[in-house]
Design goal:
The chain is α/β, with parallel strands linked by helices and 281 residues long. The chain contains 15 helices and six strands. The protein has a four-stranded parallel sheet, sandwiched between helices. Keywords: Methyltransferase, S-adenosyl-L-methionine, Transferase.
Length: 281
């Protein structure tokens, strides 16, 4: 009996602490976004001294209030994103990067940084639908209820991107940073898979980075980057890659279907599985 009471007290004590995770759970992503926006990882990485970067130096470099920045950095150090270490004089401390903070460099295109993805997912456009999750869960199973994104913005993600160039660029950069991380590894691990392949079509290829990496790795391949016209209008011009505009749900040009390996990244954004599967076929 006494043990049951002790367990109940322990559970209550734990719950009284855990509830604060949900009160301030947003702070993790807000602080990470702040670090990316201010380019704090870059400032520390480019610090000319071999010593850790002091708060005064950091606040001057990123043009931030020292008192406000100190609080942000204390939180980010606690989260393990940065390190705070003593400087040689032993009187002050300074900040250094970690492998995690280096993955938050918005200016780095090394195949490790996911900073553009963080900024995309923490944008108002992407966060707002999460607050409508309960309306989807409580909607009738057989009723017609728009997805949270559509309900909030009165249009789907692709229509919003077409009307909002900044949001469209966010999507493309988020996909591109993940592409730089994944596609080179796929190419190295599956080298034999591309022997004899003459054409690769990336359906929903965004700025063309994925197929560009493949064509560079396998120069005998002709690459096609197929996406919506407003995306193709700002896509990169890459050697060996032809950008083609169109709507994959209307049709994919016949010349892109013949003897091609295709990839479809749209699938991760849609909840319409039947529609996405039709594109895959």
């Amino acid at each position: 009996m006494e043990e049951c009471k002790r367990n109940l007290v322990d559970e209550e004590a734990k719950a009284s602490l855990d509830i604060w995770r949900y009160v301030f759970g947003f702070a993790d992503i807000a602080a990470a976004k702040c670090a990316i926006d201010l380019k704090i990882p870059e400032a520390i990485e480019n610090h000319p001294s071999s010593q850790p970067m002091t708060l005064a130096e950091l606040s001057s470099t990123v043009s931030a209030s020292p008192s406000h920045l100190r609080r942000i950095m204390r939180f980010l150090v606690h989260q393990g994103i940065f390190k705070e270490v003593p400087i040689k004089d032993g009187l002050t401390t300074g900040y250094t990067n970690t492998p995690l903070s280096r993955r938050m460099m918005i200016t780095k295109r090394d195949g490790k940084s996911l900073a553009p993805f963080v900024l995309f997912e923490t944008s108002h456009e992407m966060l707002a639908p999460w607050l409508r999750l309960s309306s989807v869960v409580s909607s009738p199973v057989n009723g017609s209820h728009p997805p949270p994104f559509d309900a909030v913005h009165n249009k789907d993600v692709w229509a919003l991107a077409e009307d909002n160039p900044c949001f469209s660029e966010m999507i493309n950069e988020a996909m591109a940073c993940d592409t730089r991380r994944v596609v080179p590894r796929v190419a190295r691990a599956c080298h034999d898979l591309f022997d004899g392949v003459a054409t690769v079509v990336d359906v929903g290829g965004g700025n063309g980075e994925a197929v560009g990496i493949l064509v560079k790795e396998f120069p005998w391949i002709k690459g096609f980057n197929f996406d919506l016209p407003h995306v193709i209008d700002v896509a990169q011009v890459l050697d060996g890659v032809e950008n083609v505009g169109g709507d994959m749900f209307d049709s994919i040009p016949k010349r892109l279907r013949c003897g091609a390996v295709s990839s479809v990244r749209y699938y991760q954004f849609t909840n319409n599985r039947a529609q996405a599967n039709n594109v895959r076929r």
